[in-house]
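Consider the following assembly input.
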Amino acid sequence: MQWTINGQRYVAEVDVRTSLLDLAREHLGLTGSKKGCDHGQCGACTMLVNGRRVNSCLTLAVMHDGDEIMTIEGLGQVGNLHAMQSAFVKHDGYQCGYCTPGQICSAVGMLDEAKKGWASHASASLTDAELNDAEISERMSGNICRCAAYPNIVDAIREVAGLGDREPVLVAAGEVGA
Amino acid sequence: MKTFQYERAASAETATTDAATPGAKFIAGGTNLLDLMKLQIETPGKLVDITRLPLGDIESRDDGGLTIGTLVPNSDLAAEPRVIEGYEVLSRALLAGASGQLRNKATTGGNLLQRTRCYYFYDTATPCNKREPGSGCSAIGGFNRILAVLGTSDKCIATHPSDMAVAMRALDATIVTLKADGDRRRIAIADFYRLPGETPEIETVLEPGELITAVELPKPVEGARHLYRKVRDRASYAFALVSVAGVVVMDGTTVKSAALAFGGLGPMPWRNPAVEAALVGKEASDATFAAAADALLADARGFGSNDFKIPLMRRTLIASLRELTGA
């Protein structure tokens, strides 16, 4: 079997049960992609397969023989970060960082989908969807952050999508706790 | 995960004969099957990988309908302009399900065949007639908040989890298959799923080795309003407690035609002609909608923690009908 991962060709024979995630982590030394739930519920394992974001824990390496795969390691490196990685750093889009590789790969895939004009459950119109905070939250709902860094993740994605900073939310003192 | 023999299908014909052997299964998106295999709820001896077969196109037919290849991913189907134009309810249902990553992988045929998310089906330490026929149903008398109120039996109260299938039920889809003996079948979605009865482990009419090759949608209903309303425990990435797929045509303030299907209620995407009969030819009003809800829920029966689904479904249907009819 062979795969092109982050532009590099890998050849290996692995057990048919090996998930794409385990192939990367356990056999090829690419440990950037994380195993959270191992059931497609948390998104920590998100990779881009032939340009599309998928849960790498829920697919078999053998089924991707010949495919092009991008993991967080290929997206950018120290000193040469991808714009999404830089934005996560700038906006502090994490606390523990465990979900971050999946969040970033998912966000990159998500913005490609939005660029293609794909709508979401949050879209009023299926033909004229525009990204906003509600859209970003909905489209990123497959990535769980136990530290709840969500507002900063949205900020990071907003920056890369060219949406600028969010309007600050002002709460009158009397409304706090109301 | 138990090990298995892996085969990449060279053609749809060889796939069906390969998968007709006991213990063999097709795999495409794998988002549900691999999840179940990791938990040893599914333990196939052989996986026949159909992902490289040329079954991933969406084609317009001369009769005005659409043929959706079984391998079309959920995300691509939701974004397909011909679906958005003529079958908005389907696009909306797809977008209401799963996550972006899962929709990119999950296929049309696989979505139809996904298994229930009943807690006990997933918990191999407890009896479940669907997972282990004859072992008993832990959900009856157990935690059954997410489970069925219609179409149940004393063997099983599981719900079918799909949103997509509910929309396809409202759209009168037809499932096209290829059998191991080479025959092709066209199965109306109304006839595709089976009620649990005494054999909840058998969920569809598919025979061993029978491969879904496509789903056909009839010509779009002219002048229809579409709606998919899903009620769930969180705003995104959760299965339906209840859902409604509706395609309604109005003539002034009178309901001219209505196709309504429901998720979260039963072991299959639910549709009841009595609901539509209570609406068609009637003035759109809350009294009419209440009669439709009565017809839908006449035989509904809760099992304790899912009792709330009955009034929730009633209110959800009435709210949906207000939106669909403009009343």
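The two ends of chain B are 53 Å apart (CA to CA). Ask yourself how this observation constrains the way the partners meet.
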